[in-house]
Amino acid sequence: MVDRLANSEANTRRISIVENCFGAAGQPLTIPGRVLIGEGVLTKLCRKKPKARQFFLFNDILVYGNIVIQKKKYNKQHIIPLENVTIDSIKDEGDLRNGWLIKTPTKSFAVYAATATEKSEWMNHINKCVTDLLSKSGKTPSNEHAAVWVPDSEATVCMRCQKAKFTPVNRRHHCRKCGFVVCGPCSEKRFLLPSQSSKPVRICDFCFDLLSSGDLATCQPTRSDSYSQSPKSPLNNVSDDEDDEDSSD
Length: 249
Fold this sequence. Notes:
Residues 152-212 form the FYVE-type domain. GO terms for molecular function: phosphatidylinositol binding; zinc ion binding. The chain is of the alpha+beta class. It has helices at 2-5, 9-22, 116-137, 205-212, and strands spanning 36-45, 50-58, 61-69, 73-81, 86-90, 99-103, 108-112, 173-174, 181-182, 190-191, 201-202. It starts with a helix and ends in a 37-residue tail after the last helix.
């Protein structure tokens, strides 16, 4: 089905509409063989709070952006190559239901669909596209993925020292290796994580010691289900770290 649609006028027109919705700031999406599989609004768990994002699934990439005017205008386009993607279901908890993790070597995050059926359809389509891509290329699935950041609202104190309370002065930071919310003194070091940045990035002391000793696995996040917890709303929900999407995520 995908191969038959690749060169169809309807597919070309649909992709062109998506390009136009992102405008000049977006990257061109029309290339030979690319097919738009589906689209929809998903709730992305950003660092501050869950936010609606428009997602487009192609046979080789996943594209998402901020909604400016529904079905007319989007910005902050992000393109994720599907061959680097793995997905894991998240347990329902609180108001956040029908979710799964989208994990890549560069960036990982949680998304939530409106219904269980929609979640199943998204996950099935993504898995099929990834399987087809890897089958054609002969590549193996990626075992490396960036940590999913723990939302700011889940940590009122540093998740490493368990002592430092976050205030407007003592700000939140995120370890780029484990995704934990940590204080400044617990995350003063930098380490080069080539899949995430060409420059050394902030990591916590715990991960720095393990990475420096060559123990790459131990500092991987172990709270795989924690990212589905319902965010609270602490008064001092402040941080000076920005993720690569925008300062509010």
